[in-house]
Amino acid sequence: MAAFGSSRFRQPTTAIYLDPNPAVRQRTVDRLRSAAEWLTIDPVSTPAALRDALANATERTCVITEYDLETTDALSLYERVKASDVTTVPFLLYTADGDERLASDAIATGLSGYVPRGVDGSINRLVAQLRTILDDAARANGDEPDADPHRSDPTQQALRSERARFAALFEHSPDPVAITVQLPETDRIVDVNPAFESMFGYERAEITDRSIDDLLIPDDDEPVCITDAVGLGEVVTAEVERLTTDGRRNFFLRGFAVEIDGDVLEYAIYTDLSEQKRRERELERYRTLVDTVGDPMYTLDETGQIEMVNDAMADTLGTTRADLVGNHPSCCLSDDDVERARETLQMILKDDDRQWRTFEMEFEPVDGEPFLVENNVAPLVDEDGTFAGSVGAIRDISDRTKREQRIRRLHEGTRRLMAAESTDDVARVASEIAHDALSLEINAIHLYADGTDRRVSSDAAAGGRSAATGASANSSQNDGDDGVLVPVAMTDETEALLGSVPTIGPGNSIAWDAFEAGEAIVHGDVRHAENVRNPETPIRSEAHIPLGDEGIFIVSSTTPNDFDPETLTLARILAANLEAALERARRECELADRTAELERQNDRLDAFASTVSHDLRNPLTLAAGHLENLEPHVDAEGESYREEIAWALDRMDDLIEHVLTLARSGQRLTETEPVDLDGVVDRAHRTVDPSLDLDRPEPLPTVEADQDRVSVLFENVFRNAREHVGDDVTITVEPTDDGFAIADDGPGVPSTDREQILESGYSTSPDGTGFGLAIVSEVVDAHGWSVTVGESEAGGLRLAISLEG
Known about the structure:
Layout: E1 13-18, H1 22-35, E2 39-44, H2 47-55, E3 61-65, H3 74-82, E4 91-95, H4 100-109, E5 113-116, H5 122-140, H6 153-172, E6 177-182, E7 187-192, H7 194-200, H8 204-207, H9 212-216, H10 226-230, E8 235-244, E9 247-260, E10 263-272, H11 274-292, E11 297-300, E12 306-309, H12 311-317, H13 321-324, H14 335-350, E13 357-363, E14 371-381, E15 387-396, H15 398-419, H16 423-436, E16 442-449, H17 458-461, E17 484-490, H18 492-498, H19 510-517, E18 521-523, E19 541-546, E20 551-557, H20 565-630, H21 636-665, E21 673-676, H22 677-688, E22 693-695, E23 702-705, H23 707-725, E24 730-735, E25 739-744, H24 772-782, E26 786-791, E27 797-802
Parallel strand pairs: 1-2, 1-3, 3-4, 4-5, 22-24
Antiparallel strand pairs: 6-7, 6-10, 8-9, 9-10, 11-12, 11-15, 13-14, 14-15, 16-17, 16-20, 18-19, 19-20, 21-23, 24-25, 25-27, 26-27
Helix pairs in contact: 5-6, 15-16, 15-20, 16-20, 20-21, 21-24, 22-23, 23-24
């Protein structure tokens, strides 16, 4: 299209006015027609209608447009128009949605002017802008604009106001702006705005009249000459690097040139790209990370479609990235897992304190079985908080799950292990655990046994498992008296492979070496071991794990190097638990044996005591009866002899009673119960003599004991005090830190005799039996307690019983 001609003011001027809002469009048209009668208005509602109108444009055509055009905006529309043949049509932006940023962008894009709608005098400003544009166009073509009778002072005022507004836009633009003038040899800075001062670090006064090339352009960069690049009326854009007082920064440059009073002024508007560049570098690093990280990663868009996957994701699923991108996650997940992922994202979005969550799901590869993975998922949101998709990092946890299952089964099996009663049962359960929980299908457990320390049952020791050839040759016969390792438990696979499992004795044996050294021995291929006896054994991998002094745990495989570190670690854990269970079972068996033997001893003692009581008391009873029958026939002289005989018989009866009590008190305890000592003391006091003075300053403890025997203890101490001190004795019973003490206020016992008073037969009284405190000692020993003889605060006897032994 031709440039504007010199006949510009002799012909009507047409303004194509574009606004999609019909009410605003009509109101603006009416006001323009009223303010500028010389202007012909052609209203249109769409960009398409504008393009049709421009097809018929003349050199007297200009465009007035709203910014928001519903399907696009005025700046984008201008760029498209500029790209066509219609390059000299002036565009004015007349909008109610503008601000300084929009005005700056409009000027940088190349629009001819900007007038905000809705402020006082906006129509007059718009008309003034049109006149200015038309005048500039006439001068550019060498014409002088004709006098216009319609110009009035208000129009001039509007023009001055508009110029002031553009000055304000320059001052308040958020982007740095520099105005330079091109001189023959160099450039010179005319002005900069405050944003330029802040960004570049120069005061306006110190930079004015200096060369922008010398100050801002790095030595390794070339300046952008805006006028030479595009000529007047066009906009140049470029990404540039400029020097600031803080160093180099990246900017997006938008530049245009205007001619004012014969001088060409270049406007350079800089938009800082440093943050953008930093984000781009971060994005590039992120892309590199995503592409190189070993774990599968993906992103979904806001509709849930796969937007990006890395190579690890594609490899894991057995497909390509191209096949996954654009697809729905249901291509590799079940519907339930897709729904679980959706619910997880919803939970994150509702929880301000959580930015990501982890959940488990099953991957379904193209070929192969589904496997369990862990998805660490996070939503993606825009700056305004709008959901924009999600990102996830996948980790294959199938191995971890299997490991957790093995550990859980090992833990459950250990409870069974600890519940087994005999050592044979413990070994059998351990072999089953190794088979079922650890997949150690070939295993055997040998327990140590000899003539004096038998740790296995007689059945296992003599179970016909003599030495056998064909095992891993880690066996030997032992016909002497030395201890041997007897096989007590093994799997069916072990017997099927080896035939029979041998007893292992001292000698050139891997198993015995490990047992004797107390250290595990692991062979990746047992055929290459130095002391292997059968190089043709079917066993290849083998581990010998000692069980302390209890025996050895052997696991085997027909595959070389078949035991990974994790399996060996779990096998050692099982061995440690097995050792503890064997020790427990052995102790419990020994305790049961001792308890049974004690019960047999007690039964024999009871039978002996009953026999002694019967055989001794029957003659005494007969003698006492005859003595009573003699009483009428004895004269005064014989009465004294009869009384001596009666006293002797009574004493013999007391001795028999004390002997029986002593015998029963010394029996080992088989059962105990919580005993309230205060109650026992009260009953003993009433039994012996309620009139005795009993002092109990503090409550006594409750102890685990045999109540009948503890009653005998207190009764004998109380009787001993009454017999040796008298009826006026005061007895004190009090708790101590480790038990209780019983004291009296009698004459006490010399320190030289204190060790003897607890012995049978010792008594300081001619009428005493010497069994009272010996019975106390037997009761104390039967409970595993201890008694200390000392002196009370009153100088009498004090017995301190310690429950700690």
